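ASSEMBLY PREDICTION REQUEST
Request ID: AP-0331
Submitted by: J.K., bench scientist
Number of chains: two
Total residues: 323
Priority: normal
Notes: Please return the full assembly, not individual chains.
Input sequences:
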Amino acid sequence: MGIEISSESKLKRFVPKHQARSAIWWVFQRVSGFLLFFFILFHMLANHYLTALLPADIRASGVASFEAVQWKMQYTYLGIPLYLVISFCMVTLLVFHMLNGVRTVILDLTTNQTLRKLIAFLLIIIGLLVISYTLWLNLTVASIGIR
Amino acid sequence: MAENEEIHDSQIDTSSKAANFLKWFNPFARGIGMWAWLLQRITGLLLIFYVIFHFGMIFTLAVDSIWGLDAGQFYNSLIHWVNSPIFPDFAPLEFGNIVINIQNIISIGYMIDIGLIAILVYHGFNGIRVVLFDLGIGIRSQKIIFWILLILGIITWFLALVFILIVPEIVILAGE
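STATUS: Completed
Returned structure:
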């Protein structure tokens, strides 16, 4: 490499002036990615494959059937709707992991700070809407038939 | 930063803009690290599309009560269609006492899962690679780490496919 570079400018390359607060999102992306591995493993096994988790009468209608999904959503352990809580944690992590990934792509496309902030704001709104939708869906399905 | 840190080729802009633009479309102009980065983004976008599809699809859990049908009627017919066998005439696989009814398992849902798990495993394993480099582990041997994780990922993918192929059968055997 024929280009000389001073130690000062070398440091500057790694300390972006305006994005110091983004470091928390950088950490979040790593931690949520790690946690999502276990959440998605649990999700796929519980919702699509592990029939053994279900009581016999529900198992007969199939692991992914409406009856099975509703049973899981109504399931409580020590009064806590455990499945709903796990689902809600997973969806929250998943949605913000996804939208933060979109933000990473957008940060590569533009250096305009105003645009970056606007897009980040929009993504947070979208994330909150998607999370509210899944929560509404979970609670609706859990309450169908109870009336 | 270490004093002897080198600048990577990609950080020095030596060619014209047009040449750089054309370089984008030359697959051999990218190193394996850049392919890993690009595939991470592509798999990430594909997963976003899958999640949008998935969230839309599970809306059918609730439409029955909105439309006044029996609970789960529409959703269950959808699931039945997704899980219906594509090759119902295949002979079951027999390993001694264990019989795997692949003719019942190979369905549109299984096909989707094959692709989905492949994408998930790539995204996850390359994510591990990215985290390792963020922690400063193994940056110098990033190419060999890519290939090791790719092989581990293919093994994981294969094991997952075998697992989801035989698990419903094992549960049925244990239940009876």
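REVIEWER COMMENTS: Chain B is about 65% helix and 5% strand.
SIGN-OFF: pending second reviewer
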